Request: fold
Amino acid sequence: AVQLPVALIVAATHGSLGIGRAGTLPWRLPTDMTFFRLVSSAPGESSCQPAVVMGRKSWESIPNKFRPLKNRVNVVLSRTVTDFGSGTHTFSSLAQALSALSRAPHPASTIPPVSSIYIIGGAEIYTEALKHPATSRVILTTVYADEDAVRCDTFLPDFRRTGEWEQKPTADLRRLLCEIKCREAVDLIPEDGDRVRENGLEYEFTLWEKR
Ligand code: NDP
Reply:
């Protein structure tokens, strides 16, 4: 069984949970990018780094100069490619990746021990991770965008309506970020339920937990 905390971290439209368009992000949200970087690289109390797990298409969407993602153990899932270069670890299934990450360090493993596991997309990987029993949290940036204007072509399944997941108060998200020693990310969350406003879009950081 997978012992480490597994969380999705994702930005999606409020209405239809749109997350992508033409292989990239449908928006440019600098504060959300900073939030993502801070949270997914926070080691917490541990002396090791978190792991980020992504699909082959999301890996390819990261500009060369930014990959592998710094201060994180990069795991790429693919059924066709076996090696994405130095600083990456490849698996051909999510279950294999999660169990290898939680077993490390294994004598035969090249994968270092990790402090926690973040699923960072895209839709195929999120969809599978939402069904995996080890996944307990979704850190969701809800983007209040006009669906016709952002024209997403890639969506999350609507986990909010399955009854399996419950939205937690913002105070719980702040507490979680403090636990992982990520105060800088706490400072990005507006007071009093205000939304962040950037590039003509409004959005908020939310936390969902499996019931
Ligand atoms: P993914 O990034 O999920 O990659 C899909 C690929 O991953 C597949 O083609 C396959 O690679 C591999 N794969 C999928 N499932 C498995 C599995 N179970 N085991 C092994 N390999 C697997 O692609 P999507 O098209 O679903 O999503 C990409 C879109 O999502 C882009 O537009 C991107 O910008 C967006 N995105 C949005 C985010 C957000 O927060 N808004 C975050 C991340 C991405 P192969 O074909 O090589 O076998």
Remarks:
- The CA atoms of residues 97 and 123 lie 17 Å apart.
- Residues 10-11, 19-20, 23-25, 54-58, 61, 77-81, 92-94, 120-125, 128, 154 surround NDP (CB under 6 Å).
- The radius of gyration is 16 Å.
